[in-house]
Amino acid sequence: MSIKNILITGGAGFIGSNLALKLIEKGYQVTVLDNLSPQIHGENPTETSPLYLSIKDKVNFIHGTVTNKVDWEKALSGQDAIVHYAAETGTGQSMYEVEKYVDVNINGTALMLNLLVNGSYDVKKVVVASSRSIYGEGKYISNELGAVYPTQRDSIHMDQGDFEVKYPNSSALTLVGTDEDSKIHPSSVYGITKQNQEQMVLTVCPTVGIAGVAFRYQNVYGPGQSLKNPYTGILSIFSTQIKNGNDINIFEDGLESRDFVYIDDVVDATILGLEKEEANNQVFNVGTGVAIDVMTVANELVKNYGVDVAINTSGNYRLGDIRHNFADLTKINKLLGFSPKISFESGLKQFAEWVNTQEVQEDKYQKSIDEMKAKGLYK
User: Domain of 61?
Assistant: First the structure.
């Protein structure tokens, strides 16, 4: 399979722009289709967005949207492969912007696939960005039942300050890595749309001789991450709060955990998926295989910035949030030879050093909370 020309949808975003630069360095020709969303890039993106400016004049840039057929037709011409990143990405926001998330994430993907099936294009591989959010809660071991997959937590318990997951007829649960064969039961509209994207690509592409690959990314972070977006990216949200001298109010009790994976490792894994035949028609977790609780994230950021702000646990929670999840990397290590290289401590230090070079952004996090309160999704 010969691949030279690669289209990255959402390629001016955080992951997409980093991938574009690495692919160019490796000799690929890169086209980017991106709508330069103000939520990510600000109000004057062509002049002030660091993400866009990092790829400007280095890629064939198409200012357009994945919900527009004409934009797709222009972008697909002459491409050997597609990396499909363009998506709305806020878990909480997806619960009250349902139509927008379905339109961009699901319908945008359907439009791409419809053109590939019915048109005359040279595309040989489609890599789609899935997400750990499709799993919902992670995988646990019950002493009584073995492997179990708890459903969305009950507000009755959380209202009483009990945030840990429960499972019927089981005592205490032990968290383990979530593998690719784990139960898929997303707890947010965002997770549902990522599941749909993944399944559509892996179902449709092979029928027309195109290899499909899905990467279930964990929580991606690193230099270049948007500091303007109050809806997603816990490290960037906390960093903006700290830099504004505002206290950090952590949901629940601060012990909820995620798998934080550095941007360079995500780019490396994605390129392996593009280049290796072993990736064809497969789905892979991408993470570190280590769970880090949110309280630790906040404390490490405050320490790295040297700014004296209070860290509080509010006891509040968002409907749709999960408690724990981290990746089992056995499959991607075995088939693609991928192992993450950047530890959380090292990656967070590099991220904080980069943030220190950036202009302090307005803290809009409370706006996102107020929106959720108004919809009854913030308790």
Answer: 5-374
Q: Kindly give the residue spans of alpha helices, DSSP state H, lying in 133-176.
A: 155-158
The DSSP line for 113-163 is: HHHHHHS-----EEEEEEEGGGG-S-EEEETTTEEE---SPPHHHHTTT--
d(CA 77, CA 62): 12
Q: What CA–CA distance (Å, rounded) separates 373 from 206? A: 44
pLDDT tens digits, one per residue of 77-133: 999 999 999 999 888 888 889 999 999 999 999 999 999 999 999 999 999 999 999
* CATH number for the domain that contains residue 234: 3.40.50.720
* pTM of the shown model: 0.94
Write down the residue that tokens 């991928």 correspond to: 338
Question: How many residues are given for the chain?
Answer: 379
> Total domain count for the chain?
1
- Inside any domain, residue 262: yes
The CA-based diameter of the chain, rounded to the nearest angstrom, is 60
Map residue 327 onto helix, strand or coil: strand
- The verdict on residue 220 lying in a domain is yes
Cα Rg of the chain, angstroms: 20
pLDDT per residue as tens digits for the range 175-192: 999 999 999 999 899 999
Mean pLDDT in residue range 151-162:
91
Q: Pick the closest to residue 188 from 231, 250, 158, 238 (CA basis).
A: 231
Q: Report, as residue numbers or ranges, the catalytic residues.
A: 190
Looking only at the bridges linking them, the beta strands covering 139-142 and 311-313 are unpaired
- Give the burial string for 222-251 (b: 16+ CB within 10 Å, else e): bbbbbbbbbbbbbbbbbbbbbbeebebbbb
Q: Is 29 exposed, middle or buried (0-12, 13-18, 19+ CB in 10 A)?
A: middle
Residues facing 292 on adjacent strands = 258
Residue 269 and residue 21: Cα distance in Å, rounded? 15
